[in-house]
Amino acid sequence: GLLAIGVMLAMSSGNGGIDLSGISLANLSGVTAALLVSRFYSADHDPWTFTLCFAGVAMTVGLLGGVLNGLLIARLGLTPILCTLGTQMLFTGVTVVLSSGVAVRVGSAEPLLEIGNGLVLGVPISFLLFVAISLLIGCVLKYSPFGIRLFLMGTNAKAARYAGFSQGKILVATYALCGLLAGIVAILIAARNVNVKWDYGQSYLLIAILITVMAGVRTEGGYGRMVCLFLSATALQLLSSMLNFVNASNFFRDFAWGMLLLVFLATMRFDFKSFWVRKG
């Protein structure tokens, strides 16, 4: 869900905007945080300090990676899909080098594990975190100048140029926010496991794009509603749980996600209203 928010933000900026590097940046953030923080603090003896430092480093690395994407796209004029594909491979390569290709143990710091596995009134903390971030970013997109300008860029790039604001700064801020979300994803991955690795969650990119397309976010930019994305992510999670219940193969699940994505992309291009009007 958090990765899907990042994809939505990038798509909303228009000009073929998308962020393909989210999960790779999340893995880099998690591995960097685990290697760096474990040198100074023990997850067993200083659980709170370890958790806070781990979260801080992961979000910082994610933010810097997002800024890199934004600068490459805004300043050098690189095509977003090719740029983030390249940084995806870059982040993955750096993660492999840092970890020597093996899993890096995070440890069992109780506060960190609580984020991924704890409950509040029977509701998972990770889900509450997703709800809170969705509400916050939804309010920013709807009520702040940043959100208005972001959607204007996607709706009418020419009008955005004459509006007098810096499109480059909006793009950098957008991809920086995508990177920050990837850093939070790294925290959740570490909280759900005892280690982090360069290849965790490789299928999450497809799922994030599927959630975004199911939510009605326009691939050409200019439109996206957070409430629709939230409902889309929830519906897809329910479908995933159902597939788990019937013991469906992981290969079938990837096939189903791919087919759903193609179906939604095709239906978005079809004008049902004009079809029925002509028939009438």
Helix and strand topology:
Layout: H1 2-12, H2 22-37, H3 47-75, H4 80-99, E1 104-105, H5 110-117, E2 119-120, E3 123-124, H6 125-143, H7 145-155, H8 157-162, H9 167-192, E4 195-196, H10 204-214, H11 226-245, H12 250-268, H13 272-279
Antiparallel strand pairs: 1-4, 2-3
Helix pairs in contact: 1-9, 1-10, 2-3, 2-4, 2-9, 3-4, 3-9, 5-9, 6-7, 7-9, 10-11, 10-12
- Which radius of gyration do the C-alpha atoms yield? 19 Å
What summary fits the major beta sheet? Answer: 2 strands, antiparallel
Order of helices and strands: HHHHEHEEHHHHEHHHH
By DSSP, the count of extended strands is 4
Unreliable residue runs: none
**Beta-strand percent range:** under 5%
Distance between the termini: 40 Å
Mean pLDDT: 88
Basic shape:
globular
The order of strands across the largest sheet is 1-4
Percent range of helical residues: over 70%
Summarize the structure in words.
The chain is mainly alpha-helical and 280 residues long. 73% of the residues lie in helices and 3% in strands. The protein has helices spanning 2-12, 22-37, 47-75, 80-99, 110-117, 125-143, 145-155, 157-162, 167-192, 204-214, 226-245, 250-268, 272-279, and strands at 104-105, 119-120, 123-124, 195-196. The strands form two sheets. It has a two-stranded antiparallel ribbon. It has a two-stranded antiparallel ribbon with strand order 2-3. A hairpin with a 2-residue loop joins strand 2 (119-120) and strand 3 (123-124). Helix 2 runs antiparallel to helix 3 and helix 10 runs parallel beside helix 12. The radius of gyration is 19 Å and the shape is globular.
